[in-house]
């Protein structure tokens, strides 16, 4: 009887251990969770008109027309987009947001003429410059940890020493709003695009204005430095891309017409490929020199796009439009894309190619009227020639 009891005891212990092991195994198994190709759309209560990605983490900042700023952590796991904090310190529309290079501060400018600095972790306002401009501020560039440039609705550019909260440069070289500001990697030159159709060049080291470009058709709405710093590309309200040589800012070296209502914002993805957004709601990937529309990244159907931004790892593009949605698009394939210098035979149907599974979003023939214009205005050969000449100049210098 004693032996039988001991045997039963051993069996029960073994069963209990097996039961515990099975429970542990079940709990250690990953829960069924849908992994998306891109993060879910983020629905807003007001139109978002400014976006910025954190330089090191999966965090996105957004500013809306009511002056509110939101900070989100985004994820491809279903249901895991999370609002970290929101701020309502601006009195009017927040027009631009930008992170510091270390990601610890978030800068913003507004129609209320103020410059704000937020602590990213705490979500608290740490510095405010009221009445930074006499007119509403439209453009913002964080040059480095201490220097910030801002541009307003009447064409005034100010450059700030944020340690003192004072501007050490104030220039009125445009006749209309400043739409965008860019700086070379050496932080010696500032470039401004304007609604007056010109690009301005400012010498940061000498703290002075240098020159204005010739007037182009329509507003210059945005700009990007491309081709290892040898080219500057400006978007236009007329649907044109203007290309300048770095040391030839007075006149364009090339122009490229997109079949788009406008080019309201551009974002560089590689040294040759940028993304454009337009009033027609379409985001196009465009190769510069040779000038080719390589396809559609995505769209807000029938809604003008306010801004696009590229994530720190070049994996996603975020866009915001009048539909009050922030959308994410997969651009991971663009970094490896190479466009041949030779002219490509046009596709028989002439439709704009979708560059990811989400680009058409089930809208069928929405893009049927959007042609892939590889040889717009016959400028491609000239562009290739000018690019080769510039390469030679670079090698000689």
UniProtKB/TrEMBL annotation:
Residues 377-397 are annotated as: Disordered. Nucleolar protein that acts as a modulator of rRNA synthesis. Plays a central role during organogenesis. The keyword Cell inner membrane does not apply. It comes from Ictalurus punctatus (Channel catfish). GO terms for biological process: rRNA processing. InterPro entries: WD40/YVTN_repeat-like_dom_sf, WD40_repeat_dom_sf, WD40_rpt, WDR55, WDR55/POC1. This is WD repeat-containing protein 55. WD repeats lie at residues 130-170. Belongs to the WD repeat WDR55 family. It comes from the Eukaryota. Keywords: Nucleus, Repeat, rRNA processing, WD repeat. One of its GO terms (cellular component) is nucleolus. Residues 381-397 have a biased composition (Acidic residues). It holds the Pfam family WDR55. It is found in: Nucleus, Nucleolus. SMART domains: WD40.
């Amino acid at each position: 009887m004693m032996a039988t009891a001991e045997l039963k005891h051993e069996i029960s212990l073994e069963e209990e251990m097996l039961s515990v092991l099975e429970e542990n195994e079940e709990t250690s198994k990953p829960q069924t969770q849908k992994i998306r190709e891109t993060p879910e759309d983020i629905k807003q209560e007001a139109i978002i008109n400014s976006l910025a990605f954190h330089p090191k983490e999966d965090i996105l900042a957004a500013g809306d027309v009511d002056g509110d700023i939101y900070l989100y952590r985004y994820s491809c796991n279903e249901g895991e987009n999370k609002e970290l904090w929101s701020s309502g310190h601006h009195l009017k529309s927040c027009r631009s947001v930008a992170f510091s290079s270390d990601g610890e501060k978030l800068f913003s400018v507004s129609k209320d003429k103020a410059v704000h600095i937020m602590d990213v972790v705490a979500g608290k306002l740490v510095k405010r410059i009221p009445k930074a401009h006499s007119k509403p501020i439209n453009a913002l560039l964080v040059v480095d940890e201490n220097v910030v440039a801002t541009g307003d609705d009447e064409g005034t550019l100010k450059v700030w020493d944020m340690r003192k909260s004072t501007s050490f440069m104030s220039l009125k070289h445009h006749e209309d709003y400043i739409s965008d500001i860019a700086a070379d990697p050496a932080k010696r030159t500032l470039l401004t695009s304007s609604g007056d159709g010109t690009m301005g060049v400012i010498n940061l080291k000498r703290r002075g204005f240098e020159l204005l470009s010739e007037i182009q058709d329509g507003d210059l709405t945005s700009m990007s430095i491309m081709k290892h710093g040898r080219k500057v590309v400006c978007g236009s309200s007329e649907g044109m891309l203007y290309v300048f040589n770095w040391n030839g800012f007075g006149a364009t070296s090339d122009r490229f017409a997109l079949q788009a209502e406008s080019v309201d914002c551009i974002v560089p993805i590689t040294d040759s490929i940028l993304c454009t957004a337009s009033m027609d709601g379409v985001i196009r990937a465009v190769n510069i020199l040779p000038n080719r529309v390589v396809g559609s990244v995505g769209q807000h159907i029938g809604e003008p796009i306010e801004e696009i931004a590229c994530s720190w790892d070049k994996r996603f593009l975020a866009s915001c439009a009048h539909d009050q949605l922030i959308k994410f698009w997969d651009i991971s394939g663009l970094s490896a894309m190479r466009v041949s210098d030779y002219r490509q035979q046009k596709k028989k149907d002439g439709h704009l190619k979708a560059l990811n599974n989400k680009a058409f979003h089930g809208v069928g023939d929405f893009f049927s009227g959007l042609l892939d214009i590889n040889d717009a205005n016959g400028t491609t050969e000239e562009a290739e020639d000018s690019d080769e000449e510039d390469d030679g100049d670079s090698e000689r210098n």
